[in-house]
Amino acid sequence: MNNYFPIRALETLLAALDEAISIIDTDGIVVYWNRAAENIYNISQSEIIGKDIQTFFQRADLMNFKVLASEEPVYDLYHQPRHDMHVLVTTVPIYDEEKKLIGSMSVEKNITTTIKLNEKLSSTSTELQKLKKKIQETQYQDPFHRIKGSSIAITNVIKLAKKVAKTDATVLVLGESGTGKELFAQAIHEDSLRKNEAFIAVNCGAIPQALFESELFGYEPGAYTGADKNGKPGKMELAHKGTLFLDEVGELPLDMQVKLLRALQEKEIYRIGGQKPRKVDIRIIAATNRNLEMMVREGLFREDLFYRLHVFHLDIPPLCERMEDIFELLNTFLNEYASKYKKEIPSLKAEQMAMFYAYSWPGNIRELRNFAERLVVLHEEGERIEETAMAFLPKEAGAISSSQTVASPLPPVYTSLAEERQLTEKEKIKQILEKTYNNKTLAAKELGIARSTLYQKLKKYGLA
Question: Where in this chain does the record put each PAS domain (predicted)?
């Protein structure tokens, strides 16, 4: 084989990578600059190779020089080589055959877009919280009034939530996606002794892993290159005296679970780069659609943190277990969107309501709300809703013909339909479990539901 071939293969590989790769010698002269680096920094190879890298960047902003000085590699470190650039950088020293330091190589993954989206989301969330607080100041309302439904399933949960709201107990809200877990968290806060303090929501599934610590605990001035010169408080500090809502808590990385547990136990945090502890007095409400007990058994969630969060738990029922609430929910949403879009409120007959009760609504209340909006937007004034209802409903609901006559959308009509659907669902689950030899992961995938949802249904139908 031609000795030149391995070198060309390596050069081709480095050029094809999405990560920016740069190599400098001990004098700071650039000896390699791949295509991704050209695109990210808008500096061509012909411009920079053979030149001092400090011509293009401030020395203090370069990880290469820090690694050359310490001869200690860094891996996946959050870094800002420029004020408008955010990267995860891995930098390692390079030695010759005699173990003499001859340079350093940096591999940088651009996460600027992710950072900016997260900042925008955080800013929007803050503005929404301010607006909500202003509305609450002008008119007092029962904090749980936004949770609609009169079924036994939902009213029992509301009663429990109201009891625990008056305490400082940590609450774990469990339920499928779209059941209204954050709505319960907000209501508990607004009905608590901390209602006049901040309600800070953290979506654990939306924050890049490298930013978790700075988002939760904040950082001191100069904690890292490009950091705000005044430092930045984390979400736990912002929630001091108020409530911290950890949404999708099952997505927390294991290393952050340890740090969060310590902060909750000690009731104090350390900012990144800080030496002085900061006391925090917060109430924790966490929510997840995942089976945390199963995650604990699988080593994906710390047992001690689970029991720390599991002081009191609320199980929010899926919509398929509170079918009698569909009529009230749907009318609420139709009125809301008719007012929003200044359109006529579509009227639904018993035949159409029967379709709604037959459908399982896997997306829960969120799916029903979206359906209501779609119905209002597409409905034309004076049009007979029965002529177009089938087009608006999910395909699965088409099993019941719109020509069927149902006396009224009252419990006797849809209770039997719900029972029939549950029997069918139970048999389907049993068939899939037999097909997959009781492999829960494969069964959940074939059924098109989350594994946590499957475990809930197994328990419900006595199949666990």
Answer: 6-61
